[in-house]
């Protein structure tokens, strides 16, 4: 998912438990509603539309107000949720799911197997224009439907009574994680049709299947509530009746509200200063992630300099990732060694995938300057101007641009860097419409398997915002997902080849693997933090 705090489905999840003590009375009063929970988002949510969402923050709200066939547990493993059973054939091509009895929507109407079928059909329907349609690739006819070459009702997801059958064209190692993913949560067709264009644009035009219902979000406001959904199948285990959600865009303000007892969890990893000032607080908890920050180069030809491979390579070689990471994140995060981040997945031999696939990104200012000069000569130029875009709301966005501007202009004589800071929502839109030269992007894995990253940049992929074509890369990824799909060792090698192809053509520039630390009210227990998928699962969260 797109993010300055984007995350995905659950490679390694942990239950965050209370620890330490507080001064008497600070957390015990009614500053945030007594036993109610209060959480903060750093940027406004964009939608409650399950099929159309692509960002972490909206996904957090959707994931806590929705349920799926399975849900990731505190150990990062998919467990039954709406499903009574999930079974698959020996060849991995057929999944049979039986729903629990008596399931209901938040309005009390019956939740059926057809609601699962509909949500899968809706995401691949070209009319929906979902950027996540590619996640269904591998389900029978999904690609053909997304391309407008087959009817939606030919999708390999069917229902008979309480049983749903998934027919796959190839085995998908991540399939059970897809059954937990927010974008595949059930949707009620009659409700979606009734709401039309208004569907899920505010809390009153959405219907909920999960632990909570959203209340009081009008589509743009920065304060709303999550109210316990009494019609949720497991409502008896949802102990918190209300969660207050507020958007606080300034990290320093959020931390101050935390210290006043008005928010139960906030990040302190937004700026080096904020981290240094709070790292010794006894309320600090590690916030594990599988997220990569990287630069995308617009290779459509709009900027001739970025169509030149030597100039792109020069930019990559002129990037001192350790120095950048130290300055931008106070050393909290780890310099990137490739596209796939640490803690995403392990190879067949148990090695961290990121370490195994690392293609050799290095800092070499001298070689960078030589290549930059050669690239300019090939284009008949003596200088170049490039604009780098990032998120205005994110402190790390501005500091990243400051670092790149200073270090690149110093290392590459003749280069001028302009900064462009835009709101998160605009940055997403600009990325999708190629309205950028270079854009700072963050991606958090959707499930704990390499394809959640390597699918990003295949030919024509919806998230390949630079729109480059790399035949060797696409071939390696497709081999991993077809010929070698059941052979993890071979699949690992394919991903290594994919990383090498990206590196050779300097198609992207990996910056750092993000890590995080947060302050959390020690009286709050039961919250599950996932490195991928739903980053914060509030279902079992409770304030003691």
Helical content stands at 25-40%
How far is it from the N-terminal to the C-terminal residue, by CA? 32 Å
* Molecular shape: globular
Number of β-strand runs? 22
Mind summarizing the main beta sheet? 7 strands, mixed
User: Approximately what portion of the residues adopt beta-strand conformation?
Assistant: 15-25%
Brief rundown of the structure:
With 544 residues, this protein is α+β, with helices and mostly antiparallel strands.
Describe this structure in words.
Helices cover 28% and strands 21% of the residues. It has helices at 56-65, 113-124, 142-146, 175-178, 189-195, 251-259, 272-278, 309-317, 321-329, 353-357, 365-378, 395-411, 424-432, 451-454, 471-481, 488-505, and strands spanning 14-16, 37-41, 70-72, 78-80, 83-88, 94-99, 157-160, 163-167, 212-215, 223-228, 242-247, 265-267, 284-297, 334-335, 384-391, 415-422, 438-444, 508-520, 524-525, 527-529, 536-537, 542-543. Strands 12, 13, 14, 15, 16, 17 and 18 form a seven-stranded mixed sheet that branches. A four-stranded mixed sheet has the order 2-11-10-9, with helices on one face. Strand 7 and strand 8 (163-167) form a beta hairpin. The two termini are 32 Å apart. Mean pLDDT is 92; it is low at 3-34.
Write the layout of secondary structure elements.
Elements: E1 14-16, E2 37-41, H1 56-65, E3 70-72, E4 78-80, E5 83-88, E6 94-99, H2 113-124, H3 142-146, E7 157-160, E8 163-167, H4 175-178, H5 189-195, E9 212-215, E10 223-228, E11 242-247, H6 251-259, E12 265-267, H7 272-278, E13 284-297, H8 309-317, H9 321-329, E14 334-335, H10 353-357, H11 365-378, E15 384-391, H12 395-411, E16 415-422, H13 424-432, E17 438-444, H14 451-454, H15 471-481, H16 488-505, E18 508-520, E19 524-525, E20 527-529, E21 536-537, E22 542-543
């Amino acid at each position: 998912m797109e993010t300055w705090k984007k995350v995905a489905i659950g490679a390694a999840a942990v239950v965050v438990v209370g620890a330490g003590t507080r001064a008497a009375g600070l957390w015990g009063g009614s500053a945030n509603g007594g036993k109610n929970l209060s959480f903060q988002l750093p940027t406004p949510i964009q939608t409650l539309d399950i099929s159309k969402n692509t960002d972490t923050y909206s996904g957090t709200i959707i994931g806590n107000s929705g349920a799926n066939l399975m849900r990731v547990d505190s150990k990062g493993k998919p467990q039954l949720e709406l499903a009574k059973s999930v079974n698959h054939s020996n060849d991995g091509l057929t999944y049979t799911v039986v729903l629990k009895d008596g399931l209901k929507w938040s309005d009390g109407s019956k939740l059926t197997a057809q609601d699962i079928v509909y949500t899968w059909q809706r995401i691949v329907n070209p009319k929906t224009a979902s950027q996540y349609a590619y996640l269904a690739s591998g389900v029978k006819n999904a690609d053909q439907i997304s391309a407008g070459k087959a009817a939606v009702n030919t999708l390999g997801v069917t229902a008979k009574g309480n049983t749903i059958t998934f027919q796959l064209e190839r085995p998908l190692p991540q399939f059970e994680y897809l059954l937990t993913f927010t974008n595949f949560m059930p949707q009620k067709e009659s409700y979606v049709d009734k709401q039309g264009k208004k569907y899920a644009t505010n809390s009153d035009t959405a219907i909920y299947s999960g632990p909570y219902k959203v209340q009081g979000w009008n589509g743009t406001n920065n304060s709303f509530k999550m109210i316990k959904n009494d019609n949720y199948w497991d409502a008896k285990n949802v102990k918190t009746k209300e969660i207050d959600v507020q958007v606080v865009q300034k990290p320093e303000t959020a931390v101050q509200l935390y210290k006043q007892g008005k928010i139960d969890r906030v990040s302190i990893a937004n700026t080096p200063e904020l981290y240094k000032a709070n790292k010794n607080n006894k309320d600090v908890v590690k916030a594990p992630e599988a997220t990569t920050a990287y630069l995308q180069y617009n290779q459509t030809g709009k900027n001739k300099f970025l169509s030149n491979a030597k100039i792109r390579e020069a930019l990559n070689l002129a990037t001192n990732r350790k120095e950048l990471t130290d300055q931008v994140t106070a050393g909290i995060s780890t310099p990137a060694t490739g596209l796939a981040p640490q803690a995403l997945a392990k190879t067949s031999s148990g090695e961290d995938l990121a370490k195994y696939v690392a293609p050799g990104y290095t800092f070499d200012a001298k070689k960078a300057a030589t290549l930059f000069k050669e690239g300019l000569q090939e284009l008949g130029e003596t200088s170049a101007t490039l604009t780098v875009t990032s998120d205005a709301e994110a402190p790390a966005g501005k500091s990243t641009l400051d670092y790149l501007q200073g270090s690149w202009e110093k290392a590459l004589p003749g280069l001028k860097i302009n900064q462009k800071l835009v709101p998160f929502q605009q940055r997403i839109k600009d990325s999708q419409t190629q309205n950028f030269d270079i854009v700072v992007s963050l991606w958090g894995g959707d499930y704990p398997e390499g394809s959640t990253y390597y699918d990003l940049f295949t030919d024509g992929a919806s998230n390949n915002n630079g729109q480059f074509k790399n035949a060797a890369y696409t071939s390696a990824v497709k081999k991993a997902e077809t010929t070698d799909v059941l052979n993890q060792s071979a699949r690992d090698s394919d991903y290594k080849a994919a990383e090498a192809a990206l590196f050779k053509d300097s198609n992207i520039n990996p910056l750092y693997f993000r890590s995080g630390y947060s302050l959390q009210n020690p009286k709050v227990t039961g919250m599950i933090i996932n490195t991928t998928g739903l980053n914060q699962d509030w279902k079992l969260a409770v304030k003691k």
